[in-house]
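> forwarded from #structure-qc
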């Protein structure tokens, strides 16, 4: 009887599960197009690594600012309302790329990215716990990993969009050549390049609005919610939960390492292989393909191996690959870089699922927002890696990701040894 009820519940949630899973693809597009934007703005505006890292600061800083308000919003209204709000804000941010391009202002672009990321933050704060709620608690982490498999698919779509509609439009001139150009000629080149950036993001905005319309008319489970969330008592309860508390720290370092590694994948490939942005973007694509393939592999393995054991093993392998990037040369270091992405693939949803294990009721929404706020790691750690890259060399900057992976390893080891 119980199995029959679970089966009927799964069938009832199938369409909502697919629709919510599509959101993972959509913020994957935005997240990984950011990584190419660093190379794009470096070329267009002749910037340093530290200056271009402000793209990630704006994007992931928005997650910190929007996550808690999003949790309160879905608590007051519903998961569906949170999804609609997130899609609307995400779309608004993409449309702001047009006036940013017309103004030719890097600051305006950062503002557009911030708004766009705010929408992504609302979607992530809503979608992750929503997926966990769509079925048995025993399979929640695996279910989240299944939904998260669409995230790297979105990343691949983002890279292909950037490669064919943005990077292919970049003028071949480097910073020194641009410095010697006539002002009118340089302005014309920059206008064309910025139009390619703005037009591509606006195209994404129209796709978001179409999905918004579909979800607005779809019947979604768990739409009703009532009662009041007492933030301070809930936070005190969560703070006493060591698995959640240290999970937030681990997520901070994981997102920091993912953002840093992917932000500098194109730059490292250019440095080690002597190629330009468009060719180097293929290495980024290989990284995301590895990330996607291993996400499926790890999700399958979770049916047989405890997620925390897989997390520990992947952390050790990622540290080894990062050392290979630092000390390797040529293609050896580049393939080590691609391998890092393979071992990162299970980390975000696994940390998320482990940290929320056993947290139920209204505390789960506040707990979820805390884990999304931890995405601030991408805003703070990426500029640190950029600073090391500017002041030393890009290979040395990968000591920062190595330290971050060590923090994730410490979290998983603490759980395995029952210290957390």
């Amino acid at each position: 009887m119980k199995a029959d009820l679970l089966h009927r519940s799964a069938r009832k949630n199938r369409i909502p599960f697919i629709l919510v899973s599509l959101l993972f693809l959509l913020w994957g597009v935005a997240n990984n197009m950011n990584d190419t934007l660093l190379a794009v703005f470096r070329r267009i505006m002749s910037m340093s690594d530290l200056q271009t890292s402000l793209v990630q600061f704006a994007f992931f800083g928005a997650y910190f600012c929007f996550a808690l308000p999003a949790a309160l919003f879905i608590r007051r209204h519903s998961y569906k309302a949170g999804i609609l709000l997130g899609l609307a804000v995400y779309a608004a941010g993409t449309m702001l790329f047009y006036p940013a391009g017309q103004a030719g202002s890097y600051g305006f672009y950062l503002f557009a990215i911030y708004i766009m990321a705010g929408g992504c933050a609302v979607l992530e704060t809503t979608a992750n716990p929503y997926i966990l709620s769509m079925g048995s608690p025993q399979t929640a982490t695996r279910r989240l990993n299944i939904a998260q498999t669409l995230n790297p698919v979105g990343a691949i779509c983002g890279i292909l969009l950037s490669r064919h509609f943005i990077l292919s439009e970049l003028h071949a001139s480097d910073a020194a050549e641009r410095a010697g150009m006539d002002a009118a000629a340089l302005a014309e080149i920059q206008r064309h390049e910025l139009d390619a950036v703005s037009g591509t993001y606006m195209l994404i905005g129209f796709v978001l609005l179409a999905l918004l319309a579909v979800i607005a008319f779809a019947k979604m489970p768990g739409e009703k919610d009532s009662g009041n969330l007492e933030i301070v008592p809930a936070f005190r309860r969560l703070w006493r939960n060591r698995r959640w508390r240290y999970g937030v720290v681990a997520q901070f370092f994981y997102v920091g390492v993912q953002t840093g590694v992917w932000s500098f994948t194109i730059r490292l490939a250019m440095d080690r292989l002597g190629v330009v942005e468009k060719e180097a973007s293929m290495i980024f694509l290989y990284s995301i393909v590895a990330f996607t393939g291993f996400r499926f592999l790890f999700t399958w393995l979770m049916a047989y191996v405890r997620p925390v054991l897989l997390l520990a093993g992947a952390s050790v392998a990622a540290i080894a690959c990062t050392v290979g990037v630092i000390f390797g040369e040529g293609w050896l270091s580049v393939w080590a870089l691609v391998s890092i992405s393979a071992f990162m693939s299970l980390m975000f949803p696994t940390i998320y699922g482990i940290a929320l294990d056993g947290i139920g009721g209204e505390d789960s929404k506040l707990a979820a927002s805390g884990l999304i706020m931890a995405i601030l790691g991408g805003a703070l750690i990426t500029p640190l890696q950029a600073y090391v890259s500017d002041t030393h060399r890009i290979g040395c900057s990968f000591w920062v990701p190595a330290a971050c992976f060590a923090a994730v390893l410490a979290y998983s080891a603490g759980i395995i040894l029952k210290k957390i």
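QC bot note: The chain has 21 helices and no strands. The two ends are 37 Å apart (CA to CA).
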